[in-house]
Write a structure and sequence with these properties.
single chain; alpha+beta; Outer membrane efflux proteins (OEP); 4-stranded antiparallel β-sheet; 9 helices; 4 strands; 7% strand; elongated; disordered C terminus; OMP_efflux; MdtP/NodT-like
């Protein structure tokens, strides 16, 4: 009957143990070989600038929000980030658990037993009460670390969304550039054929023929460079979306992002640290370290361990009592760990302030760059309209025989340069808006609140 409590305790302990399950590795790629059909609401993705948008790619391709949704769900790097968040939550769970008590047992046997001698033993449970003093602080640190991991994951999702938008913009705008270059190439190819025929009849000079051929070769070079860029961007997009390189990703040609509201931007700037997941993650990390600093200070006090003992010696004399173990803080006093935790907390404090300063600087820089590019784009569009009118007049004069081919080719080259400038500026402004939406957390109302996180 005396063995029953011990047997029952061991049975219950074994019943709560975890069991091993194998997780084999795979040596083959696990890309998706086609665009999946998903049913995910964007309000579950944690990015405030994504409006409600069901993932339903049509025959005309994916729009910018479709690409962002697919990137968040299937990006390989985000899968690893979610695993990291799972580790952080497991560590927080581990920190929240109370330490187990200890049970010590020993037995004594006489090598030459006397008559009436018995087997001696000592048995007694004990518990380290000193670990209870730091448990609350370390558990709090674990919770803040879990919050930090979740917020870092959210911030990484924002970056993936921004990267998906950038790739979408660059591919669509790059296709616009290819279309313009294709029109110019067809036009110049016709002119080169005409010039070659006129040169064979000695109706024009060699310099006119060379100018036409040089212009065509230059457009061919620009086309090849643009095609290489598109190929790289397409592969980058497939990698971001977790798709096999051979999977075609049709994209819509619509590229639209909200205009920047300066007044609303000023209001957003006032609460920027409460919107940015990376800043909130740094704050949670600082709070976790502050809890560790508190735990290190508490740990300088004497560690107390109390146990009960029950014993019988080999003379068959039984006894029971208790033992107390108390550390003496004379030399160490945990001063080294306190200094480390304090210095680490100072470093996190400075890192948070530096990141806040950088966040405001990034927003200010992007807003000013947007204004500069807006003025430049306005002037480029005015120049483009003038060039289009000049081109129409030149074509009319050329058709009437009042201008030579060289003037027409130079006009086309100037028009192409202005078209490329306008496309480049429009793409730059769109990319700046993507960056701005990322660093401010979108244009929607405040998503995060300080009260949502452990202080």
């Amino acid at each position: 009957m005396k063995k029953l409590p011990l047997t029952l305790a061991l049975t219950l302990a074994l019943a709560g143990c975890a069991s091993y399950r194998p997780l084999p590795l795979h040596d083959q790629p696990t890309w998706l070989t086609e665009i999946p059909h998903l049913a995910v609401a964007t309000d579950r993705l944690g990015f405030p600038s994504l409006p409600p948008h069901p993932f339903a790619p049509g025959a005309d391709g994916l729009d910018m929000t479709d690409v962002a949704i697919l990137a968040v769900i299937n990006n390989p790097d985000l899968r690893l980030a979610r695993d990291d968040a799972g580790i952080a939550h497991a560590q927080a769970f581990s920190a929240s658990l109370l330490p187990d008590p200890q049970l010590s047992m020993s037995a004594d046997f006489k090598r030459h037993p006397d008559p009436g001698a018995s087997r001696g033993y000592t048995i007694g449970p004990s518990y380290d009460f000193g670990s209870l003093l730091t448990h609350s602080a370390l558990a709090s640190a674990g919770r803040h670390d879990a919050d930090k991991a979740d917020l870092n994951l959210l911030w990484q999702e924002w970056q993936v969304i921004a990267q998906a938008r950038l790739l979408y913009i660059r591919i669509v705008e790059g296709q616009r550039l290819l279309d313009v270059l294709a029109q110019q190439r067809d036009f110049l190819a016709q002119r080169v054929d005409q010039v070659q025929q006129a040169l064979a009849k000695q109706l024009i000079t060699l310099d006119v023929s060379n100018s036409a051929l040089t212009a065509l070769l230059d457009v061919n070079r620009q086309t090849a460079d643009a095609e290489k860029s598109q190929n790289q961007l397409r592969h980058d997009l497939n990698t971001l979306l977790g798709l096999a390189p051979s999977v075609p990703v049709p994209l819509k040609k619509d590229v639209s992002l909200p205009e920047i509201d300066t007044a609303a931007m000023q209001a957003i700037m006032q609460r920027l640290p409460a919107r940015r997941p990376d800043l909130l993650a740094l704050k949670s990390g600082y709070q976790a370290q502050d809890s560790r600093y508190r735990a290190a200070i508490i740990a300088q006090f004497p560690a107390l361990s109390i146990g009960l003992t029950r014993a019988r010696d080999t003379s068959n004399v039984a006894s029971q009592g208790f033992n107390i173990s108390l550390s003496l803080p004379i030399f160490n006093r945990n001063r080294g760990n306190i200094a480390i935790e304090k210095a680490t907390r100072q470093r996190l404090h400075d890192e948070y302030q530096q990141r806040v300063n950088a966040a405001y600087t990034d927003v200010d820089r992007l807003l000013k760059e947007q204004d500069i590019n807006a003025g430049q784009l306005h002037r480029a569009q005015d120049g483009l309209r003038q060039m289009e009118r000049q081109r129409a007049a030149t074509m009319q004069a050329f058709g009437a025989g009042n201008l030579d081919t060289l003037v027409l080719i130079n006009t086309e080259a100037s028009l192409l340069a202005k078209q490329i400038e306008a496309i480049t500026l429009e793409q730059s402004m769109l990319e700046q808006r993507v960056a701005l939406l990322s660093v401010i957390g979108g244009e929607l109302p405040l998503q995060f609140k300080e009260s949502e996180h452990h202080e």
